[in-house]
Design a protein that fits this description.
alpha/beta; 2 domains; homodimer; Rossmann fold; 18 helices; glucose-6-phosphate isomerase activity (chains A, B); 5-stranded parallel β-sheet
Chain lengths: ~525, ~525
């Protein structure tokens, strides 16, 4: 029997409150004990990756209390309820099925009379067939010439995740020969976004993907119109250059305006949709369906680990619990995501949406105000770049920001140079190792300006190489982390009511239905 | 006589502490009073822009107290000391002269026997001559063909600022016909960064700018080697494809490895260097020296306003003071920068460095620990994209995040579509107006899930259009804001000792000089 309780009503919460100053990281990470922690505080992920939390402010006592929290808050049972098809998104009365796009973790899920795993696989297969035909030139432009570029039109979850995934694999695909088509993205309602992308592509050889679950997203429909104008101006038939990704109930689903339509449904939130048709269409076109399938397999393997009840065998759950400890017990307000991989340049922006839109809430799943803080601010940039930028504050600022590093043993492109007896990849890795220790242990120094307090916690995920599999695993790890944190905080992590009010007011402005300050702002902006 | 005092020792600080719950924004912005605030709480910037702070949690009482703070902390005098050439960067015993690259605000500044304004202008003129020759084909590749692409090799301040400025003006320049050359940027020591950029450019027609003040930045020299290899592999003479931007004392200054070298000096910090040769070379090559000159003029006009003692006539100072009130009195830890302009996509990343590296410090300018919080976490993405992402937390999360909006009346490219009776630019502007009001006033609703608490403060900077002038003014505004906040917090905003420890430890890893936890991390990463 699952019980949904507020975090501050739990016995384990009270226990954790007594463990606030349990670990002085600076001491814990010094000497032989530090090496022991690095060896022991490491959890296997899938695909040869590890989650290492040696430099977090935890010890066995805290970990035991977090395990109690996991048990008391029934994380395993709640995850099972989710993947077995219960209505976990209570606000919108919806199932939450994004894991089902990459594998089946429990019993068959039937909704609206359809086996949903079969539905998602069917869409993947349809996309795969379509992509193969495009790559073979069987689906081509009106002159019978192959499409060379794919342009995704979408915003929010239809943009950030797929874009981050594309960038993550673009160079890898070029080197491995799986690269098929360039991808571009149009998202912002700022007319300069669409105009700029369209000016930079060869529209006659471009295929456009319109992504909108409802088929009514204003930004996306506006940008579609931009694209149609560009195609028309080039003397082309827009309906021969566009496909749709939408729900099968949307007005776009059966429109003759598109070459074809691929489906998602209401059980996959935008920010969780990279492994659905939303990511599937663009990634299959860009890299081929086999690469997309490998990406899904990577995610599926990581999802399977999230079922483990032992937190030492469940990296997402452990990561989630440590995050809660940092947020609610240690009182940290932000978390920085710092991948040491240029290919992950937009991965932090995707996680920013994933996390902040899921858990940036003040009411529990019953719509009651909670008395504790919830989701943190998430930000980040790739290292080593960030080291020459905002790391100053991370090291010596007045607030402590927990850090989430990601690193890979091998680069993607295998082109490297040796300078001062080391390769760039070695330098990259040496920097992340050095940063972890600098943050944890700091440096004593009489000159306070050069003094580093230390005690700044971080974890690191290490993989062999950024590939479709490890990327899928990384994505699933963070999706599951956010889900577990939502369970602990007793939130509905799958709706987003906070985005509605702005939409309503924007419509008022556009229809001239304004007064007072809103009218004054409209005037200021010369709308 | 200037006195450098800690913030918490000031009378005005104590006064401000008594004004913590002075303004209920939700009430203040409702009805006619809200419209009045929008009209009155607006300060002229240069170049036709305004800084509007109607939706900040301030009123005339708070503003009076902030004016007292400005006076007590001698902001005007300290700025004058800075631009007149005093040693404001006390830690490194350096002058702080970035404003002097765009105009002279006070008396002649002579350092190292050189009139520094003349020195900066001389470099600008040398760059302008060089760029004109490149554009005219007088400086060309070995076959006498014109260079078409410029690639900046730099990291931190040599990357983020120039890159953000380039992206901000790229489309504008294309539309106005001032576009001269594509620009690309190599920054990360991750070998995939250089390999990817080099794979995407035509090296035979590329000119590379090596940017390193000291001439010793490891990432940058490593990436230079990457570039030299690529040029060599293409059968080209690297010295005919590279220029250097460095200090005149650096080993690069007179090297025959470069076509030419342009100079900056120790009085311009990396994060303040976009208006120096660091931004000057790449922006003059990309857009022509006239555009760069206009950018400098925009900044100069904004700098001039920063001299005003009246905070109602000094937008940077007012913005700074309100930020301090939010940080130290209201207790907010982060600030989001939200430009409603896709062209400003990397402007938040630049401000993140500018602000967090300048004021993310725990010691005052005398090296004594301070007892108050200093620089906030800065993050942001362009709107409307962010609305479909992390705005959920901004609206309904458990912490309040002050917001800094930027908007323009006109788009850059003047290509637009009308959908539902409005252009995209109108929709873009309607959204930012709507968001400000949604954040300020919220929405009452019995269903707590759809309830918006409001009372979430924001300001907006509005300009006619994003042009070289307004971009320069925006940049100067934020540079000066950060400077004034540093003065209030009694920090040295111009050094960055917090980046040193990581460098030292990374060298140890690379030389194998590790033990204990650092050795264990090196092993984990297979270095």
């Amino acid at each position: 029997m699952i019980e949904w309780k507020n975090f501050d009503k739990l016995n384990s919460f009270k226990k954790l409150q007594g463990l606030k100053n349990q670990v002085e990281l600076k001491t814990a990470m010094a000497g032989a004990n530090g090496a022991k922690r690095v060896a022991e505080y490491s959890v296997h992920m899938s695909n040869g990756m590890v989650y290492n939390f040696a430099s977090k402010q935890v010890d066995d006592t805290v970990l035991d209390a977090l395990a109690e929290l996991a048990e008391e808050t029934q994380l395993t049972e709640k995850f099972a309820a989710l993947f077995n098809g219960e209505v976990i998104n209570t606000g919108e009365k919806r199932l939450v099925l994004h894991q089902l796009t990459r594998g089946q973790l429990g019993s068959d899920v039937v909704a609206d009379g359809v086996n949903k795993r079969e539905f998602y696989v069917e869409q993947q297969n349809r996309i795969a067939e379509f992509a193969k035909k495009v790559h073979a030139g069987e689906i081509a432009n009106e002159k019978g010439e192959k499409f060379t570029t794919v342009v995704q039109i979408g915003i929010g979850g239809s943009d950030l995740g797929p874009r981050a995934m594309y960038l993550a694999l673009e160079n890898w695909a070029k080197v491995t020969g799986t690269f098929k088509m360039e991808a571009r993205f149009i998202s912002n309602v700022d007319p300069d976004d669409a105009a700029s992308v369209l000016a930079g592509v060869d529209v006659a050889h471009s295929i456009f993907i319109l992504v909108s679950k409802s088929g009514t997203t204003l930004e996306t429909l506006t940008n579609e119109s931009f694209v149609k104008d560009a195609l028309k101006n080039a003397g082309l038939d827009a309906s021969k250059h566009m496909i749709a990704v939408t729900s099968d109930a949307s007005p776009l689903a059966k429109s003759s305006d598109y070459l074809d339509a691929f489906f998602m449904d209401d059980y996959i939130g935008g920010r969780y949709s990279s492994t659905s048709s939303v990511g599937g269409a663009v990634l299959s076109l860009a890299f081929g369906p086999d690469v997309f399938a490998r990406f899904l397999n990577g995610a599926a393997a990581e999802d399977a680990l999230a079922k483990n009840t032992d937190i030492r065998k469940n990296p997402a759950m452990l990561d989630a619990l440590i995050g809660v400890y940092e947020r609610n017990i240690l009182g940290y307000e932000s978390t920085a995501v710092l991948p040491y991989s240029q290919a992950l340049s937009r991965f932090p922006a995707h996680l920013q949406q994933l996390d902040m839109e899921s858990n940036g809430k003040s009411v529990n799943r019953f719509g009651e105000a909670v008395d504790y803080v919830t989701g943190p601010v998430i930000f980040g940039e790739p290292g080593t770049n960030g080291q020459h930028s905002f790391y100053q504050l991370l090291h010596q600022g007045t607030n402590i920001i927990p850090l989430q590093f990601v690193g890979f043993k091998k680069s993607q492109m295998a082109t490297d140079v040796v300078i001062e007896d080391s390769t760039s990849q070695q330098k990259l890795k040496a920097n992340v190792a050095a940063q972890i220790m600098a943050f944890a242990c700091g440096k004593d120094e009489d000159n306070r300006n050069k003094y580093f307090e230390g005690n700044r916690p971080s974890s690191i995920i290490v993989g062999e190489q950024l590939t479709p599999e490890t990327l899928g695993a990384l994505l699933a790890h963070f999706e599951n982390k956010v889900m577990f944190q939502g369970f602990v905080w007793n939130l509905n992590s799958f709706d987003q009511e906070g985005v509605q009010l702005g939409k309503v007011l924007a419509k008022k402005v556009l229809s001239g239905d304004t007064s007072d300050a809103l009218a004054a702002y409209a005037k200021l902006l010369d709308i």
